[in-house]
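Progress against Task 2.4 (sequence-to-structure conversion) is shown through the following example record, which the project officer requested during the mid-term review.
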Amino acid sequence: MNFWGILFIVMILLTLGAVFYLASRFRRFSFMQGLCREHKVLSWTAGLIPTAACGLFAFINVWTAIVVLIHLLVIWGICDFIAFVIRKISGKKRRFNIEGAAAILLTTAYLSVGWYNAFHVDVTDYSFTTSKDIGDGIRIVGIADSHLGITLDGDTFRKEMAKVQQAEPDIVIVAGDFVDDDSTRSDMIKACSALGDLKTTYGVYFIYGNHDKGYFEYRDFNSDELEAELLKNKVTILKDQTVEIGEHFLLAGRLDRTFTERLSAQELLKDADRSKYIIMLDHQPNDYANEAAAAPDLVFSGHTHGGPLIPAGQIGLLLGLNDRVYGTEKRENTDFVVTSGISGWAIPFKTGTFSEITVMDIRPSK
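Structure tokens generated for the chain above:
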């Protein structure tokens, strides 16, 4: 069984455990005590109120409801433990279900911050220098993981592109997962049009992520129609290809690792002009050793969403799913950048990170 199968089973077991645990804890509130004494079955049914409240998030999708339920379970469990320790130290018995009220309030506050982090898109700036001849340098604006439909539709994506335009980019790079399995044709067309309206020096460039091709067959457009719409809006699609950007730069776009036919990083750059500053796009940040050996100057990735829910990013690193979850790293002569993405995947919360547009300035060293 693969990682996602195991994760699915764990999530289902946690959900079932959460339903029972939260029902038993909700029955501790004073307004429930009389019902518990007189009508046990009815009290257990009423105890499902927290589960039902979390279940309302299923109107977004079932995974969002499960995530809210599990967060309430974990936070309530922590509050119960702290209350237990305090009572042991103080020698006092429980009179009020303060820990239950605290758990509900803390979960609401915590996930509200996560909601804000998912929907509010920041601009993150990086600066890199090189001894190569790059003239006056270049400003790269990178986005990834818009996953149209969860926090961004076609109209809100266009609004975020205004921030991209304000950064005055020389080039815009889209590092995969532009659409998702739940994206609509209408949103896809609007978002492609927004990319096409960007004013840049060298254009807009796109690589495929693992979701762009689609894992299922229920969205109302296919990957060929996505590609046609991107090309219609003058977006250059790179499929294990390199292109020259002005006089001093080379852009290499890799196919996602889910494409069995993709070239190695070394094969992609075997004929590259090493006097140029080489920028590589790779949706998933999990081939750092080979990419450092291929020696591009900069590698830009997305995919991880910055570890959207604590501790998802840390688990991904421990399991070796990614070489980095967020930020920058230097290996040998290559700078690596991983963006947290302009949106989220499946759930509208980011408790471990935030949504962002990435601005990278490449300047000559003095």
